[in-house]
């Protein structure tokens, strides 16, 4: 079970190592030789506390919203002028932007890769950037430029599994958008990207 969970990123390497070590200890106590009626191995009090601490981490894993502090979310609509996107990239340093339609529903993810493709194609045409809106830029998006929507109850181990799961084309998601219930018609509470993974791993490190 531990190996299967580790492959799905539901336990970290250190958690996996600890669980295997604790299993070896358990087997030594339960199945090892006895001397004068006593097992040859005993768990030290500090090891028992380690087991309890790991148990608490696994059974009450922290949620994304309790671990990550969200900077102001920058989202656009398909009608947003391209200039606003370029300004956000320059001023905020963001590389992923959720696009929501006028009704407040999630449309798709705009990535810096899509913007780069647009610039390359648009400049090749006449040496000028002619696109006017986000919708024009999204024509250069590819299927793997995508985000996964999840509810605010999503835990850190669950998030790590999602971020590490490739789609049918072998691509990892670019972002994870947290809404109240993971619905497209709900506005984002948090956006998780690859740069957040170290903080997520620290939150469940053992």
From TrEMBL:
<dbReference type="InterPro" id="IPR000644">
    <property type="entry name" value="CBS_dom"/>
</dbReference>
<dbReference type="InterPro" id="IPR046342">
    <property type="entry name" value="CBS_dom_sf"/>
</dbReference>
<dbReference type="Pfam" id="PF00571">
    <property type="entry name" value="CBS"/>
</dbReference>
<keyword id="KW-0129">CBS domain</keyword>
<protein>
    <submittedName>
        <fullName>CBS domain-containing protein</fullName>
    </submittedName>
</protein>
<feature type="domain" description="CBS">
    <location>
        <begin position="68"/>
        <end position="126"/>
    </location>
</feature>
């Amino acid at each position: 079970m531990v190996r299967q969970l580790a492959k799905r990123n539901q336990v970290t390497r250190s958690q996996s190592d600890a669980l295997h070590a604790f299993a070896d200890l358990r087997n030594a106590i339960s199945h090892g030789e006895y001397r004068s009626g006593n097992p040859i191995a005993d768990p030290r009090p500090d090891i028992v506390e380690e087991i309890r601490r790991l148990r608490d981490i696994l059974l009450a894993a922290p949620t994304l919203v309790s671990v990550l502090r969200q900077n102001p979310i920058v989202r656009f609509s398909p009608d947003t002028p391209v200039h606003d996107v370029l300004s956000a990239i320059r001023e905020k340093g963001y590389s992923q932007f959720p696009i929501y339609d006028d009704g407040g529903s999630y449309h798709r993810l705009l990535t810096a890769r899509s913007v780069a493709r647009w610039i390359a194609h648009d400049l090749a045409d006449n040496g000028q950037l002619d696109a006017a809106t986000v919708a024009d830029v999204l024509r250069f998006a590819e299927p793997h430029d995508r985000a996964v929507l999840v509810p605010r109850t999503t835990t850190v181990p669950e998030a790590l599994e999602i971020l590490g799961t490739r789609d049918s084309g072998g691509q990892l998601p670019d972002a994870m958008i947290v809404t109240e219930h993971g619905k497209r018609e709900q506005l984002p509470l948090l956006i998780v990207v690859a740069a957040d993974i170290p903080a997520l791993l620290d939150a469940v490190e053992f």
